[in-house]
Amino acid sequence: MKEKLKSIMDEALQQISGSEELEKLNEIRVAFLGKKGELTSVLKSMKEVAPEDRPKVGQLVNEAREAIESKLEEKITAFEKKKREEQIKSETIDVTLPAKKPMMGHRHPNTIALEEVERIFIGMGYEVVEGPEVEYDYYNFEALNIPANHPAKDEQDTFYINSNILLRSQTSSVQVHEMEKGKLPIRMIAPGRVYRSDEVDATHSPSFHQIEGLVIDKNITFADLKGTLEEFCRELFGKDTKVKFRPHHFQFTEPSAEVDVTCFKCGGEGCRFCKGEGWIEILGCGMVHPRVLEMSGIDPNEYSGFAFGVGLERIALLKYEIDDMRLLYENDTRFLKQF
Hints:
By secondary structure, the protein is of the alpha+beta class. It is elongated and about 120 Å long. The chain has 2 domains: 2-90; 109-336, Bira Bifunctional Protein, Domain 2 (BirA Bifunctional Protein, domain 2, 2-Layer Sandwich). It has helices at residues 2-18, 22-33, 38-44, 54-90, 109-123, 137-140, 172-180, 222-237, 290-295, 312-319, 333-336; strands at 127-128, 134-136, 165-167, 186-195, 207-217, 243-250, 253-262, 279-288, 304-311. One of its GO terms (molecular function) is ATP binding. It is an enzyme of class 6 (ligase).
């Protein structure tokens, strides 16, 4: 029995010493010390040993187990130490190397321009209101005094989903939703994405952004409209900016006007940026048509108001002197990081 135990121990120690993998050590532990291991088999055969020899044999079994376990722990520790040294070597950080500068994002030119416009109007007591981009034909056209046979409702100009639902072509529909609530007075701007069937070029896109404004209250006049937009243009383009109103036609306002500002590049003297005219068209506006008020449940004899609309991209193009609208959407970081 003694020779058998010595043979088992020597065999185990030899396999442990020759092992090159941690997984192999686990196999050796199971083979010799497991429930069906060789040392366990010796213990199970103790009944065959004479009673007076059992204490001595038991002691030899324990000594063999301790020797095998000690060798296993020694080998496992050596493996772990080697692995740790290799890990430290592979993960060494050279503190003398220059640090990697993280790429930080920033606001898009459109976002910068929008936040500036919102700041100006919020400072004048307006609230910012949003609405759905998928809209009913009624809110996008009918409620704004644009009848069924109007050219703007042609499928070549507007993205129709079906005969009653479309992608909004203007954020004026948000104004109708607000008027229908009946909570007067109203002072709001409605920024958002709109869609029109335009070819992509330097000044057009099938998807762009608008900012529409609306004021409804008692005794609102065209003078209020002029004063509001003059203040807005001076805040946006500079205190020396002059504003000019030209008669125009819109279905949902009467009277209506186009608004020009003096070229902030040349101060109104004429340059390449303003094509020598000294003025730049900036937005459209007018007094809300009485029929629009009536369709939204507002008495035009008691209330009046004005509305205006400006393209967000147009503001960004003018303010930052960008000559191609496509640059705003091409995601070229060489361009965007200038803002």
